[in-house]
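Me: I keep going back and forth on a fold encoding question. No explanation is needed for now; the record alone will do.

Assistant:
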Amino acid sequence: MSHDHEPHEFVLTDVLESRWSPRAFDREEVLDEKRLGPAFEAARWSPSSGNSQPWSFVVGFRGDEVFTTIVATMASGNQVWAEHAAVVVANIASVVDAEGNPQSHAIYDLGQAVAHFTVQATAEGLMVHQMSGFDAQALGRELGIESSQRVVTLMAVGSLGDPADLPEKLQEREAKPRVRKGLSEIVGGSAHYA
């Protein structure tokens, strides 16, 4: 299995170099709170505006009711592979504070927490695939989240599995090298990259 990519313009730290989002997860692996703990600890310590920490996570382990609930709200293209991950996680932002004021930074801060989770999970030998293809309103109702909260994204977490277990179309996608826009396309102002 490959996660080849085009050459980086600059050298990255090893954990960022090795991070990618597979669809093939080990179908037998069992994870628990202890194994996920370091990744959630990294999320807990990620930066947030005014230390508001406007994020929370709902975790489902393969085979339990929460897992089934989360997977049931996924788009079919995600269900077909994510149902084999050891864990699925709903990433939730508190978009309104305790006084009823909008927290415009909440989704950004949640993104940082998820990124920190992902980097730590990768360092721990786990794979993370984030996704937005799901019915957020239905999942929010099923999980009973508060009206001040919003389910923003999901994560599938586990160890790398065999891509041959995926449908043929996804096997092809899994094998394709990763491609990113060049720095010159995403960075402007006084910084100039070729």
